[in-house]
Amino acid sequence: MLGEIADHWQDLHAHFGNTLLTGLTGDMLSPATDTAWEYLALVADRHPQLTQELAAAVDQQPDLLTHDTVLAWYAHTHRGEPHLLHALIDNLRPGDNGSRDVAPLLLADPLVLGLDPATVQRALHAELGPRRSGYPLPASGAFLALVAGFPDDTAVADAWEALQRERDLHGHVEVDVSVYYPLAYAAVETADFVDQVSRDSERISSHFTNDVDPPFAQAVIRRLERDPEARTRADAAITSTDTSDARAAQLASLSSAATALPPDVADNLRQRLHRQQGLQLPDAVHDFVTATDVPVPALLLRILQSGTGT
Q: Which of 120-129, 184-193, 200-209, 293-302 has the weakest average pLDDT?
C-alpha cells in the first residue's frame, strides 16, 4: 500500500490537495501529520516529489526527526553532510523524546553515513560527559552507540569491568537488557565468548520469556560479524562431541545469522539432523533468532536450507 501511494504521489496530491496528509493519518480533525510522514519516509525515495515534500516538512518541523523512519531517511539522504552528526547526536539525548532505536545504530556505522569514525567517537564521548563508565551504567543512546560502534573503546571495557565488580560484590546487577547484552558482547574476552553465550542462553530460556531475545541475538550476531576468532570458537563448540544437538542447533542459528557456516560445520549439522530424525521423540530447543521454541530437527533443517549452511 505504501509503495502504491508513493508511486502515485503526484496524482494523489493533485486530487486531494492539502488534505492528502491528514487523510492518510486517518484523523481528518487533527492537524498533525507526523504519523503520515513516519510511514511515508519508508518509501520517500520512490518519488522525487515525495522526497522534496518530506525534506521541506523536516525543515519546517525538525521534531519529525524523532521518528526512527524519518531519521533513517534523513541520514540516507544527507550522507556525509556536516550537520548530519549534530542531528543524530540531538536524537540520542535522554529526556527530549528523541529516537532511541535507530540513532545509536546509525552512529555505530559512521562510514556508512560518510562520517569520520574518530569524529563520531569524540562526539559520543562529549555527549556522555566525564562519567562514561562505572556502575550503574549510563542509560543513554550515546553509550549504546559507543558500545555498538566502538567496542574497543576504553569506556566500554571500563563499564564491563564495573559491571563484573558489582556482580561479584552483590551477586547480581540491575541493568536493562537493551544495555546489558550489547555491552556484554562488545566487551567480553574472545576466549570467554562461547561460555558467555551459554550462560546467557540458559538464563533466558529458564525465564520463559521472549522479551530479551532480540537484544541478545542482535548483540551476539554483531560480535560474530566483526570477530573472526569468536566465529572460530563458536564453530568449534558447534562441532564438539561434548555439545548436545539442541545446543549446537541453538548456537548454529546465531552463527549462521552472522555469516555463512564453514563446510565442516554444515556437515556436522547434517549428521546431527540425521540422528535427530531417527529419534522417536526429537529434542526441542529455543531459537533466539526467531524467538520461538522449535523441534531441533526443524531448526537444523532451516539452518541448512537457508543457504548459509550449505
A: 200-209
